[in-house]
Structure formats: structure tokens, C-alpha cells
Write a structure and sequence with these properties.
Order of helices and strands: HHHHH
Shape: elongated
Largest sheet: none
Strand content: under 5%
Number of strands: 0
Structural class: mainly alpha
Distance between the termini: 77 Å
Radius of gyration: 23 Å
Helix content: 40-55%
């Protein structure tokens, strides 16, 4: 029964669909570097206003384990990319917070009206 279902699934999705992640390497541009180093920004704040949606790159647990086991992680430069991406995300969050706070600030007319009450 399982073999029949697997065969049908391969017919629908193509023969290489099941082994797609096995063919990727750490340096493949399709692999999410942020996921390998730590946490992908797309996985943060899901179902909130800050949600970035699903990550377009591959999140592979075997590749993450391979990266964590690597002796010389600095040769890849993934940590730098991770810090750069996270800093961009933090800056975007701070920009949205500042914009929301500016919208909440009272105008001089509103301050005068509340003081007259």
C-alpha cells in the first residue's frame, strides 16, 4: 500500500522530488544560510504584523547538522550574512515602531483640547 502511494506521489511530483534535498550542499544558493547559522527571519513572528511569510529557500535539518559539525565555519562567511540579515530585520522593525509612535503623538491642537477639559 505504501509503495503504491509512493509511486503515485512520484508520478505527480516527479521522480526527483523525494531526493531533492539530498542533492543540495552547504554552499548551494537555494539553501537558507540564516537557518543554517541560527534562526531564519521568516520563521520569526509568524502570524503577526511583522510576519515575512514563508522562506523561499530550503531549510534542511541534515545540512544544518553538517554545518554545526564543520570544523572551520568562518570559511563560509554565513555568520556575517546572518548578522547582516538580522540587522536589516531589526532596522525594519525599529522603523515600523517609530512610524507607529509618530502616529500616536498628539498635535498641539489635541494637547490644547485635552488641557481645556
Amino acid at each position: 500500500m505504501a509503495a503504491e502511494q509512493r509511486k503515485l506521489l512520484e508520478q505527480l511530483m516527479g521522480a526527483g522530488a523525494s531526493s531533492r534535498h539530498a542533492q543540495l550542499s552547504l554552499t548551494d544558493p537555494k539553501v537558507c544560510r540564516s537557518y543554517l547559522v541560527g534562526t531564519c527571519p521568516h520563521d520569526l513572528f509568524t502570524n503577526t504584523k511583522q510576519d515575512l511569510g514563508p522562506c523561499p529557500k530550503v531549510h534542511s535539518e541534515p545540512l544544518k547538522s553538517e554545518y554545526e559539525a564543520a570544523a572551520d565555519k568562518t570559511k563560509y562567511g554565513f555568520e556575517y550574512d546572518y548578522m547582516r540579515d538580522m540587522q536589516k530585520y531589526i532596522d525594519e522593525c525599529n522603523r515600523r515602531i517609530d512610524a507607529a509612535q509618530r502616529r500616536l503623538e498628539k498635535t498641539p491642537d489635541e494637547i490644547r483640547q485635552t488641557n481645556d477639559l
